[in-house]
Fold each of these.
Amino acid sequence: MSGARVLVVDDERQILRALETTLRGAGYEVETAPDGETALTRAAARPPEAVILDLVLPDRSGIEVCRELRTWLDAPVIVLSAVGEERDKVEALDAGADDYVTKPFGIDELLARLRAALRRAAAPGDPVVEIGELRIDLDKRIVRRNGDVVPLTPHEFALLRYLAQNEGRLLTHRSILREVWGPSYQTESHYLHVYVSQLRRKIEPDPTRPRYLLTEAGAGYRLVAPAPS
Amino acid sequence: MQRGNPLAPLAGSAAAVVLVTAAIFLLRDSVPVLSLGSLYVLAVLPVAILWGRSWAVLVAIASMLAFNFFFLEPVHTFRLSDRSNWLALAVYLATAIAVSELAARARQRAAEAEQREQEEALLGELSVALLQGESLVDELPRIGSATGSVLGVEGGSIQLGDEAGPGFELLAGTRLIGRLTLPDGGRPNRSAVRRFLPALASLLAVGLDREELERQALAAEGLRTSDAVKTAILRAVSHDLRSPLTAIRVAAESLTSSSLQLSAEDRRRQLETLRVETRRLDRLVTNLLDFSRLEAGAARQRTELVAVDELIGQALSGVDADPVPVEVKLPREIPFVEVDSAQVERALVNLLANAQRFAPMGTPVTVTVSAGDEEVILRIANNGPAIQPHDLDQVFEPFVRLAGDDDREGSGLGLAIARSFAEANGGRVWAESPPVGGAAFGLAFPLAHVPVEVGR
């Protein structure tokens, strides 16, 4: 994974410098941009393998930059948001960002998110996804937990499939609804809450303390391999 | 109400009786004397009008006695030979008394009307004063003495409050507004007291309520404003704390992380970030303290004579020379100003930090000092983006960030503080867009008169 080229976009010189040094120290190749225009130009000149993008930039919003990058770049985008910018954060995720960290973040958190995003981007479209005790066969539409088949309704399966294909990635309510139920349902978030609750009862050992299907308050859901307890 | 000297009605009454008696004396040969008795009505009437019922009755009795004494047989006695004359005298007396009664009533009504008019005039005047927002407490002495004179006494005073005490209670319904005390020995018009004081009390109650509401409204407004300021401060502070904290956390954690491979140069860079960002946090805290002190009006000047290059030198030690250096251009003759050097240094530091913040990487900020006949002008310029004409004044408002300035260093306090400190020291500050490009801020102070031996 190391050696990947990362583009860091932030207008705070000191943050840019600290991140550049840190990422280089972690083995990445780093490019920086102090504003949105420069970021788009640099990304076009040498497409990065991941982008770390501050949401508030002097010339244009990080959301716009993210949307524009998404039209031609598949590399994962991690946005830097701040308390009080929750709405912007969700909008950026809807615009195609893969994940976010909240300022002031620790480097371990940022590096972990970056590693996960790069791994997802590199992973081939394997028809069988294994996450912890779950084994999801996307082609045959069969889900097993510890070898036992878990019976799922078509919508429950579609929900789990979308989450599994984006393992570890934060998916917004809107994007899940659009993907699973269709574009006309993308604001019907109560559908989603009901199905998430049903799905948890089938795949989680303890649905009240979910370890696979995690809630990101106000933003969306994330399917992860449970941390060893 | 005529009061005071009782000699005037006594003399007037006597004169009226004497005058009519003299007239009858002159007429008694041409007119039957008995019919002339009715002329005494002419004495009773004016006395009744001028001095009231009692004097009129007195004049009527005195007139009949005089008529009897001087004109009815036997003259010069109070006896009467003709019995029918008794009847005539009785009729005259009754007539005189009836006339005096009528006259006195008319007179009393006129007096009452005048009294009420005075009362209403005073109430009207008070209403206007209170509605125009004059302070009730300021007006109280005037209201007290005006009330006294309406009630027929000299002076008077009003105490607000519901404590028991001497004087007349001012009751608006059942609510005790205060008390009216009149000077000792004054004899107020009782019916006016009964009529006027409740009206006055009601009016004062309205005035008091209005002032109370006004106070509450002001207090609420003050709270709202301070809430808005607090919200703005919190937002600015949380933003401004977060940016340096992010840089500090990333730099500090990278220095202690065992999984990262940092070169010596990398370590130096991270340490430099720590130094710069902690200094920035320090500046933020200083600005917040300055701002709260200025807001509380607690900033005091300790003015002293100080050379401008010294001021700039102090300010330069408060900002970083890296990555944006500051170049200073001084005139050959160093001007002096008389200011609180600590405050002006704060103003300068904020202007310099602002200019550095918007300077493109690698280009310097320049400080140019020029002295006119009366002013010293410090111009702080950079090659950064020009300030829009309509923003030139806006930039000095606290918590204002211009478009594109959303995530830059600075709380939106620095320039507001610079202006406050400049103005507190007799100076002024302004923003301009030089024709050569970039942005510039001017800071001007009155040129101080320097004794020759101090000058350089």
Note: Strands of chain B lie at 157-160, 168-172, 175-181, 304-307, 326-329, 336-339, 365-371, 375-382, 428-432, 439-446.
Amino acid sequence: MSVRLVKFRRETLAGLDEGLAGLLSRATAEVGEGRISSWAKALEEVKGRTEFEVPETLVVTPYLFDFRYRRSTGVALTRFLEGLKEGKFVGTRCSGCGRVLIPPRTFCEWCFRRVDEWIEHSGEGEVATYSIAHIGTNPKVRLPRPEPIAVIWFEGTKVLRPNSKTVAHAAGILHRLGEVDPQEIRIGMRVRPVWRPKEERVGSITDVLYFAPVRG
Amino acid sequence: MRRVAIVGAGMTDFRSMLPHSSPEMIREAVKRCLDDVGSLSIRYVDGVLCASAPDAFDGYHDKVSIANEAAGAIGKPITRVFVGGGSGVAAAVSGWYHVASGLFDTLLVVAWEKMSPPYPHAQKLFQTIFEPVIEQPLGPNLIWIFALEMRRYMEAHNLSKELIAEVAVKNKANALDHPHAQLGAKITVEDVLRSEVMVWPVNRLDISPTSDGAVAILLASEDVARKLTDTPVWIDGVATCLDSQYWTNRDLAFPYYVYLAAQKAYRMAGIKNPLKEVDVWEPYDPFTYKELHHLDGLLGKPGLAPKLLKEGQLHRDGDYPASPSGGLLGVGNPIAAAGLMKVAELYWQLSERAGKRQVPNAYVGVAQAWGDLMQVGTVVVCRR
């Protein structure tokens, strides 16, 4: 089938700025033959069906987006990450609506006012919802062991919507569950954070290994 | 403000790995749209409004410029709207602002997506929509948040996976009648339940595919619309509504923002009882449960949509036909284009151009899309 992969010639690369040449040759190497048979199959299928002109030979060019980021985390998340190092969840409380905000912010989106009361939370709470991941970021790769993930709502922070059973707000985060058989997990189950040893903590959300059921 | 009509629509096939470039797809959809309005010349188009999801899919920043030539925007204004998955319907809403304001007599609304180029999978780019400091380090996949929302929704109304799977069966069967569909198929609930588990409770067949494709519609002010066509479809209500980006602070069981957007759009269109007055529903269905979840919001009654599904009321011949096009699950999900496809479907349904997909006696229709990190509701109400 006529699908052609563009590869850059050595002499082309030699004439380029070193950084760009490196990027292009990495693109060719790393993107490689990527899915060329799928493109060929798709072209074959489309040829019989689509009403508008299709290319005779499908040419596929490689491209690699090579970028790195460093982010300043700002006032609120900096205190949150520093708190994780100490084994606690740092949040803020709005003096207008009284909500506890975790992840913390320095403003309240409901009252649209500045928030500057800082609070600490143990991280104990309940499973608001959960699921079992069989894939990570690449959907083609199955995880060796399915991982339970959950949204955790922190104890004592729920605000109910008037006249309904739905929750209007709760301080909460996304994380993994551990020390639990997936079959046992229930919505509403009480959980607590399991921390890395203090000396291993770096001020990242991964300083919490997972949330585990509160037994007994 | 002036009344605004859809006077034509066109789309390309939705396919994975469509061999055309993005401009070629856009141009084809625009051409089909203009042909639909009696071979209207692009000269009569006053401006262009376009929508496409993250630049990273095309691997090309400022990707609105992809549409400049292909949508015939040279010498005219072009604007891009972007609210993630909600972009397609948001484009129709913004298009309405342009024409209703009196500043534009005709406006082309174009949406496209080319999701095939990123390798090994577009999914990796979705990771970057998560909050970067405390969510991305957990290595999430976009399907995670859907699975979490689906589980919460199932808990709230005690729903079975079997029932939710019927949405895939219905929509893929509907798509068999759509000439541009990617995944029209006769499948069974068993097929859905037996397909690979991606992130429990979401299986492979609960998910719409990655697709390439483009859709265009032409909007016109009332007096111009009446000159261009005998079958204008009026956009009588538009609204968008946001909820908080802090999705872990919200109850995912009910899309409150979709409810608020819908209520606003109904008020604008003079609809008092949507259950009685709306004939065709095109709720956003990137996942099976999402059609029900969104329909709950549009109907304003948490837990009603699953009941209607159980009674067979959401089928094309039911009282509340939902996604008669085949939806994203059947026609395909080139993100922004998929939302606009839903608006185009209302045009085809309400002007009786939907062929085998035609819902009988369709006078009023509602299309909705949803996006960003599960918190944007965009709604249009159309009437013939």
Note: The two ends of chain A are 64 Å apart (CA to CA).
